[in-house]
């Protein structure tokens, strides 16, 4: 494998493993040995499915605005905000009027996200 294969562009829609998570919610996934990145795009007012998984997850709001649903709280987030979701805590995201783009980081990588497909996996 060339070292060039280890470089990606967050704005290239053809880069990464594509997955449709919900209506109006898609992601491009980049998996390593110990961590996984997921670039999630949410259409205006789109919402993911409340779900949980054992992996720790960090998120960074790259663009737009959203409501982060985490546990039993709804927390407004704006560009530049980032958060940690411990394993097995129920969570989802609801995009604002201009949509949202989020960079999620998982550790360890989520096995169900290592293949193209649809859905969030564990619920």
Automatic annotation (TrEMBL):
It comes from Bradyrhizobium japonicum. This is Cupin. Residues 78-123 are annotated as: Disordered. Residues 39-106 form the Cupin type-2 domain. Gene3D superfamilies: Jelly Rolls. PANTHER family: H2HPP ISOMERASE. It holds the Pfam family Cupin_2. It comes from the Bacteria.
């Amino acid at each position: 494998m060339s070292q060039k294969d280890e470089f990606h562009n967050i704005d290239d829609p053809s880069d990464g493993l594509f997955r449709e998570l919900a209506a109006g919610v898609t992601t491009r996934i980049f998996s390593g040995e110990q961590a996984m990145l997921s670039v999630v795009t949410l259409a205006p007012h789109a919402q993911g499915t409340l779900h949980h998984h054992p992996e720790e997850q960090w998120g960074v709001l790259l663009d737009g605005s959203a409501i982060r649903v985490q546990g039993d709280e709804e927390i407004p987030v704006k560009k530049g905000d980032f958060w940690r979701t411990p394993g097995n805590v129920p969570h989802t995201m609801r995009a604002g009027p201009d949509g949202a783009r989020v960079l999620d980081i998982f550790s360890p990588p989520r096995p169900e996200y290592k293949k193209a497909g649809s859905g969030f996996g564990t619920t």
